[in-house]
Amino acid sequence: MKMLLLGATGRTGSNICQQALAAGHQVHVLVRDAQKLTEKNHRGLRIWEGDVRQPHSLLKAGEGTDVVISALNVSRVNDFPWSPLRTPSDFLSTTMQNLLQVWPLLGAKGLVICSAIGVGNSAPLIPGWFRWLIRNSNLQVPYADHHLQEQLLRASAIPHIIVRPVGLTNGALRHDYYLSEALTPCPSALVSRKTLAHAMLQLAYEPIKGSQTLHLSNL
Predict the structure, then answer these.
(1) Concatenated DSSP letters for the chain?
(2) pLDDT 10s digits, 163-182
(3) Which one, of 61, 58, 67, 63, lies nearest residue 96 by Cα?
């Protein structure tokens, strides 16, 4: 499989990249700084340096790919909820608008994106204290932009899967994870980025049809 991966230098995206290359797939990445890629010398990796908010950069990197996977996020300078933003507040929605614009020219058959539990209609699935934290810190920015990119994607005709994970950790890969469309409490409050990467890749390997939103946690 030939895929375009967005967010390959991030904590989730780097795991997707490593796992996809290990499985023998060809991975196209569009990054600002290729030196941040841990797998930059892998023969299965093709690298474009550019900006995901520029349609021509997306088209160059993604043309001829089978599927697009996005692990992008609005990031902060550190994990403290009130820390300043490192990326623009509309980073996800602007990228999605540009991806929708060039999609007919890519040839890809489907899109898998990472969102988060607590976005949109999944807000009741997170504890009240965390909803308060989102409303009263800089966490509100990525959650709002995740919601907007989900809305843009659902309004399009692109076959897609939105994956909303619970809280992310740097733990080991687990294969006993839970994926559900139902808006019911998740079995676990945490899941590792390695597990999220594995789940997104497994979804990308199958034909993607229509619109689907899945909630991910450990069992």
Answers:
(1) -EEEEESTTSHHHHHHHHHHHHTT-EEEEEES-GGG-TTTT-TTEEEEES-TTSHHHHHHHHTT-SEEEE-----BSSSSTTSPBSS-TTHHHHHHHHHHHHHHHH---EEEEE--TTSGGGGGGS-HHHHHHHHTSTTHHHHHHHHHHHHHHHTS---EEEEEESEEES----S-EEEESS-S--S-SEEEHHHHHHHHHHHHHSPP-SEEEEEEEE-
(2) 999 999 999 999 999 999 99
(3) 58
Pairing state between β 110-114 and 190-192? unpaired
pTM above 0.85, yes or no: yes
Amino acid at 123: A
Tens of pLDDT, residues 174-212: 999 999 999 999 999 999 999 999 999 999 999 999 999
